[in-house]
Amino acid sequence: MYTDIVDIRDFYDTSLGQVARRMIRRRLRELWPDVRGQIVLGIGYTTPYLRPFRDEAERVIALMPATQGVAFWPREGPGLVALADEAELPLPDMSVDRVLLVHGLEGTEQLRPMMREIWRVLAGGGRLLSVVPNRRGLWARADWTPFGHGFPYSPSQLKQVMRDTMFVPERTAHALFIPPVRSRVLLRSAPAWEEVGARWFKAFAGVTMVESSKQIFAGISRKAQPERRRLIVPMPGGTAAARRAGDPTGA
Prior knowledge:
- The chain is α/β, with parallel strands linked by helices.
- 30% of the residues lie in helices and 21% in strands.
- It has a single domain, classed as Rossmann fold (3-Layer(aba) Sandwich), CATH 3.40.50.
- Helix 1 (5-13) crosses helix 2 (15-31).
């Protein structure tokens, strides 16, 4: 079940939410350093992370699930967000190059339909970047944040979801090693927590990120020819008729 849009928006307005946005955004840019000339789609609540791509990508759009709600974005200029059913994305086939999925996978009740739709709208050489709460991290237990709601995933579980829905996991990253507390002193040390955690404590990250490519089957294998089996059909009249037909055994 999705966290209400108002609660997510209010979280990102807090000092803790701003730190979370900066730490996750930094890792996203390491994975996607260049999106020039590409169409970037955000699904879930991705607007805190899409802004750096706006001046670089050809187009940036965001879709928010209908059961989650929608918030206008950006505050300046025309809106780039639409409300949509995650199982019926209002986009043509193979129409986007990158899909960013944040606050979406862990809350959806239509996992496979949503992933099928993402597969459909993603171009052949496109990439999907999924950001989910890490099952072993402290943030998955912090229900005063949106990362403490829904179904958290371990890295292996997230990769298995990708494989089961026709994606190929390519790279894994981690973020949010700082504890989810509101202490301003601790929040100021967030970059140091990220450096140490990324080196030594990846298993306890707040969020796991998996970048996946779209799996395209090159062709359909030929149908195997059915094995021919010898059929034994009883002849009318039993053994006598069989002998008359020239089979001395009567088989």
